[in-house]
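My main concern about presentation is that the manuscript never shows what a single data entry looks like. For the editor and my fellow referees, an illustration may be useful. For illustration, here is how one protein appears when written out as sequence plus structure tokens:

***
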Amino acid sequence: RPVLSLFIERPIWNPLHYVKAFLLFLCTNKTPVLSLTMKFPLSLLLCSAGLNMSSSKHPAQKKTPRVRLSGSNTGKCAVSGACFSSLDYGRHEECTFTVSEGGVLEVISFDTEVFWEGGLTDYLAVGGEDYFGASGPQHVAVSTGDEITWSSDGFDDNNAGFEICIGDPCVASSVSSDDGSDGYYYCVNRGQVDGIAGSCTCTCPSGSGIGGPNCASCA
């Protein structure tokens, strides 16, 4: 950080001005110019006073295969590492994916036939819930041994299919170098972390005056 220096238009003897200037410096990393008439937004002062810039270490998350095809399967169902799919699927597909290690589902793409009154459709069943159309099982938790089943009907109006991965849920970290590749994502000041390792996001609390992709600065 640059050395803090204050350029003052005229002598100021009120110590509150210096406190405000220092808080502004911490929040914006800029050198402020003070005058007797300078005013600071309340949200900026609250944000500056509340920022948490601490750093701590964390254990590494393990990376292992997460899913496999099990039983008799028909069609274009496939697994690759922690991901499973049936892209450009056809009629009468029946597949079972068994979770080898629990985690959270991250939908890469999901586009199947929409349910209709006849009761037939193309759907993915996860934890007792059927997913079809454009509503995939985003961020649904699965456990080791869970079975995820896929079924398509006998009609030709098939869609693009689906691709879904199983991963470690993202965890908030106070280490600024954590980019989410191992599940730990730099997200501070009460930011909400979502996603799985490799695709983490950080959402700042509404109305707090805190912003930035990691909630580490003033909005």
About this structure: The longest helix spans residues 15-28.
